[in-house]
Amino acid sequence: MGFFSRLAQIIKSNLNDLINRAEDPEKMLDQVVTDMRGQLVEAKKQVAISIADEKKLQKQFGKEQAVAEQWQKKAMLAVSAGDDNLAKEALARFKEHAEIAGQYKQQWDKQLHAVNQLKAALKALNNKIEEANRKKAVLKARSRRAEAMKSIEETMSGLKDASAFETFDRLEKKIEQTEAEAEAQSELNQEMSGDILEQKFQALEQDAGADDALLALKRKMGVLPPEAAPAVEARVEEPVEEADSEMAELEEALAELKAREDA
């Protein structure tokens, strides 16, 4: 049972303490479970050997018991034949093998009890390993979450430092200065290329449009009189008689042209 005592120490070890001492908790957890599975394999071998010894003792007990029963039958046969001396010798052999069978029976009973205990311990060990394997997944998740929280806290601690905000302010001012210089350079380039004159005319047109919109609004509100309607040019219709005269003249010209063609 000393072998299983060592296994019990492995199972009962504080995994959290091992994680704290490990450089990589996840690898340490994997290694612990791997070691436990290796110990399980060795335990199975030991249990198999114990079972084999138990079976061997059972067979030896059965063999000696059978031999004792045979000598007992021989003693009974000698008694039936009236040979007491032969019967006594057969009984002596019966007693000898019966005692040996009794010794094997005691050893077999003890070995059978030990085997049953080993089987129960082996089953418990297997259950503990499965439990450790499940706990390993939970501990891995806890480890990763702890690392993430640690990283976040370190980042937050860095942001709390006043120098970090001073750096942001300094960068912001530098960017504003660069933007102002770029705008000044653009304005200068426009003045050099004459585009500033075009911009002035565009501004003037926009002002004129605003004035027209203001006048229209005032007329709509009645503040100013409505705009006078444009004069409509009177169209004088030609007299009907003049049109008939022109038509007759055209027909006369066509008739004259046809007469010339016929001639």
Describe this structure in words.
The protein is mostly helical and 263 residues long. It folds into two domains: 2-160; 162-197. The chain has seven helices and no strands. Helix 1 (2-12) packs antiparallel against helix 3 (25-81).
Give the overall silhouette.
elongated
Query: Roughly how many Å apart are the termini?
Result: 153 Å
Query: Could you estimate the helical fraction of the residues in percent?
Result: over 70%
Low-confidence stretches: none
| Structural domain count | 2
**What percentage of the residues does DSSP assign to strands (E)?**
under 5%
Q: Return the string of H and E elements.
A: HHHHHHH
Q: Largest sheet, if any?
A: none
Given helix and strand content, the structural type is: mainly alpha
What number is the mean pLDDT? Answer: 76
Q: Rounded to an integer, what's the Rg over CA atoms?
A: 61 Å
Q: Count every beta strand, where a strand is a DSSP E run of 2 or more residues.
A: 0
Helix run count: 7
Helix and strand topology:
Elements: H1 2-12, H2 15-21, H3 25-81, H4 84-160, H5 162-193, H6 195-221, H7 240-262
Helix pairs in contact: 1-3, 1-4, 2-3, 3-4
Brief sketch in words of this structure:
The chain is mainly α and 263 residues long. The chain has helices at residues 2-12, 15-21, 25-81, 84-160, 162-193, 195-221, 240-262.
What features would you highlight for this structure?
263 residues; mainly alpha; 7 helices
